[in-house]
Design a protein that fits this description.
By secondary structure, the chain is an alpha/beta fold. Helices cover 47% and strands 12% of the residues. The two termini are 19 Å apart.
Length: 382
């Protein structure tokens, strides 16, 4: 039996995600075990997940996954490189295959692009492009094209992550086999495609009370139907309170604050009235919006650069079925997996608890009480 890993967010889980799980079993066989390593209550773009992680984990099992693990928050709020590296490290210990979406590129092209990015020749070319004033993504693409004309273009989100997964597999010496699937439809489409909706479009419909349930697999609709929604906007005043009371040393310790960016954020937080105005004044051609968003969220959650760079000491298991139980039992021979709600004598546990307590402030209906993390239990769906 093969075990195939998926690094995901399911924010929310839609038909495209269901198609990915189905495609895995079509290719590797019906007995294939599918393990999802899913971001918890905060996602990589620097925002709270629209629905609580327990609901999304249950939906994943109902959609055909066998085991759902929580991607540690220090990986979930990392750059694309850190997000991919953390996920590959965890899944490499017990999975055979890593499946992911990509807008372009076959397996060999993605691996060739990853090797070029890891080559020693890239760094001086990247510095030259950055000195021209390009943003990091644009500079990287320009440097890549100077070395390898047939590379995968790193301009679309799934392509970027696909190459980062391949980079992580190569740099870590992982035995994971990359299994890319073409990502159909547009990742940022404002209106949902009937068969390949974007999570962006569905979140917009959910916040506007539009017709969105039909774009989800039928088996998971009840999970999301009445689930409380969470948004960055709902917690804006709490974030502003934190930013306005941070010391200079706290700003300097933030992740993503190199080259004086932390100081720019500090001045904006002490000058601007709204969160959007702060982010807009800090964003520039060189620094992407998502980098600033992650920086702001880390400030609110009390995550320093040192915390983000430290490897998580364990991984939480959120949900499984009978096949997933067997996979988890095998996985525990190589990795430290813990149940939800289990208290661990480690600073990372305190970080998890704080992030869990603060997530309730993003609820759109009314603030949710703290203490949700301690009450969680692993979900078994036979």
């Amino acid at each position: 039996m093969k075990t195939v890993g998926i690094i995901c967010e399911y924010n929310p889980l839609h038909r495209g995600h269901q198609k990915q799980i189905n495609r895995i079993r079509e290719h590797f066989g019906p007995d294939t075990a599918v393990c999802c390593l899913m971001s918890g209550n905060y996602v990589q773009r620097g925002a709270p997940a629209i629905v609580d992680k327990s609901i999304r984990a249950r939906a994943a099992i109902l959609a055909g996954a066998d085991l759902v693990l929580e991607l540690p928050i220090t990986c979930a709020l990392s750059s694309a490189e850190g997000f991919a590296a953390g996920g590959v490290r965890i899944l490499s210990s017990f999975c055979d295959v890593l499946c992911f979406g990509a807008e372009h590129g076959e397996k060999d092209t993605l691996l060739a692009t990853a090797r070029t990015l890891l080559s020693e020749e890239l760094s001086p070319l990247l510095r030259q492009e950055l000195e021209r004033g390009l943003s990091f993504p644009a500079a990287r693409q320009a440097a890549l094209e100077r070395l390898h004309t047939g590379c995968t273009p790193l301009t679309l989100p799934n392509d970027i992550l696909a190459v980062e997964y391949c980079k992580a597999i190569l740099s870590q010496g992982s035995t994971l086999e990359p299994f890319p699937i073409r990502r159909e439809g547009s990742y940022h489409a404002p209106l949902p495609d009937p068969e390949n909706p974007s999570a962006t479009s569905l979140r917009s419909l959910m916040f506007q009370s539009g017709a969105w349930l039909d774009y989800l697999p039928e088996a998971v609709r009840d999970c999301f139907r009445d689930a409380p929604l969470h948004s960055l906007e709902a917690g804006e005043r709490a974030i502003l309170c934190r930013l306005r009371t941070m010391s200079e040393d706290e700003f300097e310790a933030l992740p993503y604050g190199s080259e004086g960016l932390w100081r720019k954020l500090m001045h904006a937080a002490r000058r601007e009235a709204t969160l959007e105005a702060i982010v807009t004044s800090v964003k520039s051609k060189r620094y992407t919006r998502t980098r600033i968003d992650r920086m702001v969220l880390c400030a609110f959650l009390g995550i320093t650069r040192e915390m983000l760079e430290a490897p998580a000491p364990y991984t939480r298991a959120l949900a499984f079925n009978e096949r997933g139980r067997a996979v988890l039992k095998f996985a525990k021979e190589n990795e430290d997996f813990r149940n939800p709600g289990e208290r661990i004598d480690h600073p990372y546990w305190a970080l998890e608890k704080r992030c869990g307590d603060l997530y309730g402030l993003f609820c759109q209906e009314a603030p949710e009480p703290p203490g949700a993390e301690e009450k969680r239990r692993i979900q078994y769906l036979p």
